[in-house]
Amino acid sequence: MKTIQYILSVFSFLIITSCTEDFEEINTNPNSPSTVQPSLLLRQVIYDFGENMSYEGFVAGDLLAQHRTALDFNLFDRHDLKSPQLGGNPWPVFFTNLRDNEIILNQARTTETNAVYEGPALILKAYMAAGLTDLFGDVPYFEAFNGIEGTVTPAYDKQEDIYLNENGILDNLDKGIAAIEAYSDVIPLEGDILFNGNLQAWIKFANALKIKHLLRISDKVDVSNELQALFNDGNFISTNSENAIFNFTNTDPNSFRLAQLRIGDFNNFVLSETMEAILNDLNDPRMATLFRPFANSTTNEFNGLLNGIDASSTSIALADYSLASSAFREDTSTLDANFITAWEVHFALAEAAEKGYISADAQTLYETGVALAFEYWNTELPANYLSGSASYNATGTNPIEQIITQKWIASVINGYEGWVEYRRTGFPQLRTISASLNNDLIPIRMPYPAEEEALNSENYAVAASETNNNSINVPVWWHE
Fold first, then answer.
1. How crowded is residue 413: how many other Cβ atoms within 10 Å of its Cβ?
2. By the 8 A CB rule, do 286 and 374 touch?
3. DSSP category for residue 61
4. Residue (of 110, 112, 113, 122) closest to 42 by Cα position
5. How many CA atoms lie within 13 A of 182 on its CB side?
6. Do residues 347 and 403 touch, judged by C-beta distance below 8 A?
7. Directed axis angle between helix 415-425 and helix 118-136, to 10°?
8. 347 and 406 in contact (C-beta within 8 Å)?
9. What is the mean pLDDT of residues 450-478?
């Protein structure tokens, strides 16, 4: 009996040992790999960020910029930004994609065959980090995006440091360009839905971003020499064929998201009274490109609504206001997810020239920007447009106002950008909204989301205390 028990014990031990040795192999799902090819991740990051921020730009950014207004579910439009409804919480979009982009960057730096991804990953990191900090101000950055190997409760960093320090926005743009210029292998960049693997186009993208963000911080830092060098070199996005965009399609799943949602969600957003007035004053034909005549109109007229109504006490007839045009629902193949464009770059250079940061003809740059913006929105530029109210030195305006107003108009669907430029310059003049929940003040930063207070409480408490309890009325560093 003892012999039999001994044999059974040995046999059991061998079985257990064998199972233990094979445990990892047995419990690994071959259809769920532990690593992802950088080509797949690159496509995912570009598409996910572009698609989500285009949706956010329509349902939230356009409200802040007063391109559109919301009829219902409109606490955000009334400037209760801590209560996002149909949109208004871009924080997880940034952090999810910055985290995935960090995986690409790590793979590029640790695996020789992935080295081609380092430059684009650095440029994308700079692009997304700039968008994040421009909306929120101080944010987790230097300790963030690598929770598996780092901390899941990163400290908040100063916006100034995120822009200017090593491994910050401007440094990563320079390093991204250097990595591309140093790359000499023949392995192509795959998964690139912005530039189809064209590395020189990524360098132009990085230089366009440098122009944009040097100008954004120009009230705090002397950027003249760097901007002049970039302008003189000319290696930036300068035509619409070079834009950092990808196209939506006209069918699911790659159509613009508002085309996929129920009609009630789409019909919640109508032309803003601010946008109507500005386009009418300019006699701007993009009105018909971006909006449709209101249903009750008998002469194809357009009608806008003042932002921020109290939907509980104000009765609104949808047929009296202009909805977004068919490009945003019935035929989204004409829409792009917009990262940066030639018209935005030309408007930035025009502003830099007007302010004396670069030696260049500001009016020529402005007029080129206008022409590019009309082309981008598939609208013919009227022959007399630039000699009327939209002229560079139009009566009652100043050139900076003209530049920013044209940039603001073209930023529809990328509406957070229009709001950021308003915060930076005060143009165009936005209206006091109908039923403000923010003491009739236009917000000047996005609030940190509620989940930060729950998941990163200690660091959130420090950041909140430095923004007057996470107030939306405290300026970010470059706006101070």
1. 27
2. yes
3. I
4. 122
5. 11
6. yes
7. 60
8. yes
9. 97
Q: What backbone torsions phi and psi does residue 40 show, to the nearest 5 degrees? A: -70, -40
Provide the phi-psi class of 469: left if phi over 0, else alpha when psi is between -120 and 50, else beta: left
**What is the spatial distance between Cα 63 and Cα 393, in angstroms, rounded to a whole number?**
29
Number of C-beta neighbours around residue 286 at 10 A = 19
Question: Please, what is the end-to-end C-alpha distance for the chain in angstroms?
Answer: 87
Over residues 286-308, the mean pLDDT reads: 97
Taking only the tens place, the pLDDT of each residue in 188-233 is 999 999 999 999 999 999 999 999 999 999 999 999 999 999 999 9
Please report, for residues 181, 304, 330, 410, the alpha-carbon distance to residue 293 in angstroms, rounded to integers and kept in the order given.
50, 10, 15, 19
8 A C-beta contact, residue 347 and residue 418? no
Query: What SS3 class is residue 86?
Result: coil
* Structure token pair of residue 322: 């202009």
Mean of pLDDT values over 331-356:
97
Distances (CA, A) of 461 to 90, 179, 224, 305, 455: 20, 38, 37, 38, 11
CA distances from 166 to 108, 143, 321 (A): 19, 13, 50
Angle value at C-alpha 130, between 128 and 133, nearest 5 degrees = 110
Please answer whether residues 223 and 215 qualify as being in contact, where contact means their C-beta atoms are separated by less than 8 angstroms: yes
Closest C-alpha to 333, from 396, 411, 259: 259
Local structure of residue 328 (DSSP, 8 states): G
Look up residue 14 and give its two tokens. 């061998």
CA separation for the pair 304, 127 (Å, rounded): 33
Token pair, residue 91, equals: 């924080």
CA gap 438, 441 in Å, rounded: 6
For β-strands 156-157 and 139-140, DSSP reports them as antiparallel
Query: DSSP 3-state assignment of 251?
Result: coil
Q: Which residues of 34-66 are buried (b: 16+ CB within 10 A; e: fewer)?
A: eeeebbebbbbbbbebbbbbbbbbbbbbbbbbb
Residue 144 CB partners (closer than 8 Å, separation 6+):
95, 98, 150, 154
Q: Which amino acid is at 465?
A: S
Question: What are 69's two structure tokens?
Answer: 């207004």
Could you say which DSSP state residue 259 is in? G
Cα 384 → chain centroid:
33
CA distances from 319 to 274, 301, 305 (A): 19, 12, 12
What is the rounded distance in angstroms from the CA atom of residue 66 to the CA atom of residue 276?
10
* C-alpha distance from residue 82 to each of 88, 150, 271, 449, 450 (Å): 9, 29, 24, 7, 8
Confidence of residue 111 (pLDDT cuts 50, 70, 90): very high
Q: How many CB atoms lie within 10 A of CB 405?
A: 23
Report the sign of the C-alpha dihedral through residues 399, 403, 408, 409, in that order.
positive
- Evaluate if pTM is beyond 0.85: yes
Question: In which band, very low, low, confident or very high, does the pLDDT at 147 lie, cut at 50, 70 and 90?
Answer: low
Question: Taking every pair of C-alpha atoms in the chain, what is the biggest distance, in angstroms?
Answer: 109
Residues paired with 480 in a beta bridge: none
